[in-house]
Amino acid sequence: MPITHRRVGLLVPPANPVAEPETTYLLNAFRTVHTARFPVMGGPLPTRLKAYNHMLPDIIGSFGGLSLDTVVVGCSGSRYLMRPEEDEASCQALSRRWGMPVATATFATRRILQRLRPRELVLVSPYQPWLTELARRFWRRAGWVVRVVPIQAAGRYAPYEVDPRDLVDQVEHARLAEDAVLLCTGTGMATLAALPPLAAGNDRVLLTSNICGAWWALHQTGDAASDDLPWALRRLASQGLTP
C-alpha cells in the first residue's frame, strides 16, 4: 500500500475487532491510518469506560514522535457517560494540547447531525440496555428525538458478535421510514456489509460510528473527490454530506 502524506491516528478499545479495519477501508485510498489501543483492564464495563475517558491524553501521547494530521477516538460507549457539551469540550481541549484536530466518534457524529438537522434519530444499538439508555439520553440532550432499535447477537447484547445479516433483519423488522436517519452506534459492531441492503429502494441516511469518524477525518485533512469515496461515504455525499 502506498504511504500517503496524510496520517490519521485511531484510538480503539483493546478487543475491538472492527474499528480499525472499517476505518482503514473507508480512508485507505486517501489517508494512512495508525492505531493505538487502550490497555487491557479488569473490572466491570462502566469502570473501564470511565477509565478510557481519563487516559485519553496518555493514549494520544503513545504515538510518540509520529507526526499525525488528526486523531479519531474510536470508542462511543465511553462518551455516553458524559453530556454532549462535555464531550465537545474534551475534544477541543485535546486538540489544543496536541496541536491537531482530535474528535471522538460521538463528536464527529454530532457534526454530521448538525448539518443534517433531522427531527428524529433512529439509534441502532447493540449495547446492553443500561448503556443504550445512556446513549439515548446523550442524543436527546444533543437536541434530537430518539427512537431506539436494540440489536442482539444470538439473543444477547454483544456488539463485537453482531452478524451483518442479523443487523439487517432486526433493523428491517422495526419498519423504519423510507427517509429515516439511522445511527448504528458502537465502533465494534460490523456494519459496512449491512448498509447496502438497508439502503435499497429508500433515501435513508445511514450513519455509523466508524463512518462518522472517517467522514470527520477526511473533512479535517482535505476534501476527497466524491467519485473516489467508498460506497457508504459516496452515498452520504449524494445526500449533501460531502466530507
From TrEMBL:
Q: Which UniProt keywords apply?
A: Isomerase
Presence of keyword Isomerase: yes
Does Zinc-finger show up as a keyword for this record? Answer: no
Q: Name one GO molecular function term.
A: isomerase activity
Gene3D superfamilies annotated for this entry? Answer: 3.40.50.12500
Alphabetized InterPro entries for the sequence: Iso_Racemase_Enz_sf, MaiA/AMDase
Protein name as annotated: Maleate isomerase
